[in-house]
Amino acid sequence: MDTQQVIAPPCAPPPSSGDVTPSSGVIHLNIRHTAGFTVIGNHLAQHRGLSLVAIGLAVHIQSLPTGARIGIKRLADRFPESETRIAAALRELEATGYLHRSRVRLPGGRIVTRTLSYNQPGADAPTTTPRPQTRPRRPAPPQHTTRPSEPAAEPPRPLPDPVAADVPGPAPKPPAPLVVATPRPKPAAPATPAPHTQPAPVLVPPPTARIAPPPPLPQPQASTQELQRAASALLADLRRHTPQLTLSEHDINTLAPGVAAWLERDAHPDTIRRALTHDLPVPLRHPAKLLRHRVTTLLPPPLPGAQDLAPARRSVVVIPLQNCDRCDRAFRSRHPGHCRGCRTDLPTAA
Fold this sequence. Notes:
The protein is mainly α. Among the domains are: 35-123 and 193-212, Arc Repressor Mutant, subunit A (Orthogonal Bundle); 225-297, no CATH class. Helix content is 40%, strand content 6%. The protein is built from 18 helices and 4 strands. It has helices spanning 42-45, 52-63, 72-78, 83-96, 130-134, 140-145, 160-166, 175-181, 185-191, 193-197, 199-203, 205-210, 225-236, 238-241, 249-264, 269-277, 287-297, 306-309; strands at residues 99-105, 111-117, 321-323, 330-332. Strands 1-2 form a two-stranded antiparallel ribbon. It has a two-stranded antiparallel sheet with strand order 3-4. Strand 3 (321-323) and strand 4 (330-332) form a beta hairpin.
């Protein structure tokens, strides 16, 4: 009766402040990776100046092995984004220093594009050296844990020894290099902006060269409701012949004046339909822009009239006949007078 029997389970310890589930926001369920992973810095994952396409493309490039091809067409085949968006994302990465592309001539004379990917732009090579120093200290604890039956006071004893040995060793050395380390960041500072400033001027010309106003859409001289109705019906009927040319109501109202100009110039509807649907590009991404280009550039001239088709006649000037006042001989002249034989003012042959 004196022994105490514990029947109720022990109370669970109160949750710590870090285990409280937030009422809103993301909740991370992280599992430690042991193979097949890539380390990405938050300066890239949370970059405020890059688009989502540029951040995702940078993560994909850093996960690829050395020597992998990352051309624009290859990336467009790999991802659903277009070549234009991928090219713009690559230019963003070049402007922020995560990527650097240059043209290199091989010994055989072939010119290739060499791409350098930076996981931390602006970092110098010496910043990566202190990392391997922390790794050899991790296997040190297993050597002390191999002593199972020893008291727990022995493992902490060897730990302060290497720390004490390491501290006095480098302690006298830092004061001397502290003065020498000051000039090192000075040459490193101008070296870092060099790769950023080089691609910057190269990226400025392409966008300015692409900006060009599209040619104006042709307009009919006398716009009537019949012409507008026939043009809208012809554009809406294109999807029956070519499903790729399915236009919205806004696109039909925009392109209708151009087709009305074709109908005003006596173009047959079959001729217009053949000009708009023949030899379409594959894949067709912007049907409205393609039709606007063809309606504008392939517009036929007005039909000539009957007077324009009549052959031009050469006007012949007929000089009237005159009778000579002296010999009454007929000769051609615009004014009356003497013939050639009766004129005395003409020079005679020697």
